[in-house]
Specification:
Blueprint: E1 5-10, E2 15-22, E3 25-33, H1 45-67, E4 76-82, H2 86-103, E5 107-111, H3 112-118, E6 134-139, E7 144-151, E8 154-160, H4 166-176, H5 184-191, H6 214-230, H7 234-265, E9 269-273, H8 280-293, E10 296-298, H9 309-321
Parallel strand pairs: 1-4, 4-5, 6-9, 9-10
Antiparallel strand pairs: 1-2, 2-3, 6-7, 7-8
Helix pairs in contact: 1-2, 3-9, 4-6, 4-7, 5-7
The chain binds 5'-O-[(R)-(carboxyoxy)(hydroxy)phosphoryl]adenosine and zinc ion.
Length: 338
């Protein structure tokens, strides 16, 4: 069988990443996470583009070195075209275009959300692949979507968030509790020792398969203000129970929508991705649903859940097989529908 080497570049948000794939196998996947945003409690777009400028060349060098591949062996260059922050996307897009031009090899544009979904098809013994058709739920700091996947290139959005992403819901709730950014993993940690029924937060009333998380944030804000007024030490005294109750509410919302999607489509193949897929609660719920509802559930390796170039590379490889190449005058797209 033929050996194709794809260099992939991801720069849509605050991670600069480069990967090299040999066909559907990952040889290297280098991610430079931008620590600068932590002190601001969220991603600052202007700082993100500047950091990408600094990181992109060393990250690509490292990816090639780790893969033990010379740049002249590359078959094509895949890059994230969108959606994402424009200034961030421009860095990866311009870099990929120049390098493809210089090496005189094809350029492949990749949709970031399609990449989160097709990350399941990276050939790795530590992960198994869903079969078509399946339902993909992408959960991260920037996205919350349920997509019906009929094949690699036939994707249909069934529902998405109308406001905040689920990771934002975790992070903003954590911020209200005085926890550092990103607070999602901390809520998860404290929730594991807390009572999820201690406090009740309202669930949004959103029709169909769309999501809304901004109401939860507001109700937590009022809850915190009211409770602290009565007892200034309320949060520290009840942190585990509060975290468990918040996480329970978010998981209820996610599971309710997934069950509705399964009922509407009859599809029981469920593939989860995005940084929030690391959450221990969602993992437990999915295992439970395998036993009680007969679902088959899939979660990629964690490094392929968070933003990474390996997932861009697998889409690049699948498009390479189809000769689906981009023009040299292609432009980044901050808003880019699936
Ligand atoms: O995919 P990701 O690394 O970046 C993008 O947003 O694209 O996702 C990061 C998000 C953050 O909101 C973070 O708080 C959340 O994933 N997260 C978690 C957990 N680990 C990461 N949320 C809940 N529980 C976790 N264990
Ligand atoms: Zn992402």
């Amino acid at each position: 069988s033929q050996e194709n080497f794809i260099l992939a570049i991801e720069s849509s948000c605050d991670d600069t990443s480069a990967a090299v794939l040999r066909n559907d196998k990952v040889l290297s996947n280098v991610v430079a996470t931008q620590a600068i945003h932590q002190q601001y409690g969220g991603v600052v777009p202007e700082l993100a583009s500047r950091a990408h400028q600094q990181n992109i060349v060393p990250v690509v060098h490292q990816a090639l070195a780790k893969a033990n591949i010379d740049k002249n062996q590359l078959s094509a260059i895949a890059f994230t075209r969108g959606p994402g922050l424009m200034g961030s996307l421009l860095v990866g897009t311009s870099f990929a275009k120049s390098l493809a031009l210089g090496l005189d090899i094809p350029l492949i544009e990749v949709h970031h959300m399609q990449a989160h979904i097709l990350a399941h098809f990276i050939n790795d013994e530590k992960q198994s692949q869903p079969s078509f058709p399946f339902l993909a739920m992408t959960l991260s700091g920037g996205h919350t979507q349920i997509v019906q996947v009929n094949n690699y290139f036939d994707l249909q959005i069934l529902g998405q968030t109308l406001d905040d992403a689920v990771g934002e819901a975790f992070d903003k709730s954590a911020k209200l509790l005085g926890l550092p950014y990103p607070g999602g993993p901390l809520i998860d940690k404290y929730a594991q020792e807390g009572n999820a029924q201690a406090f009740i937060f309202p669930k949004p009333k959103v029709e169909g398969l769309n999501f809304s998380f901004s109401g939860l944030k507001t109700s937590i804000l009022y809850f915190v203000q009211k409770s602290v007024k009565k007892n200034p030490k309320f949060i520290e005294e009840n942190l585990k129970d509060i975290c468990a109750s918040i996480q329970f509410t978010i998981l209820e919302i996610l599971m309710q929508k997934l069950k509705l999607a399964v009922n509407q489509t009859g599809i029981k193949e469920i593939a989860i991705g995005g940084g929030v897929a690391a959450n221990s609660g969602i993992r437990f719920r999915l295992k439970e649903a395998e036993k009680t509802l007969g679902w088959h559930t899939y979660i990629p390796k964690f490094e392929y859940c968070t933003d990474n170039a390996a997932m861009i590379g697998i889409v690049g490889y699948l498009k390479f097989l189809e000769d689906d190449f981009a023009e040299q005058n292609i432009t980044a797209k901050a808003r880019y529908s699936l």
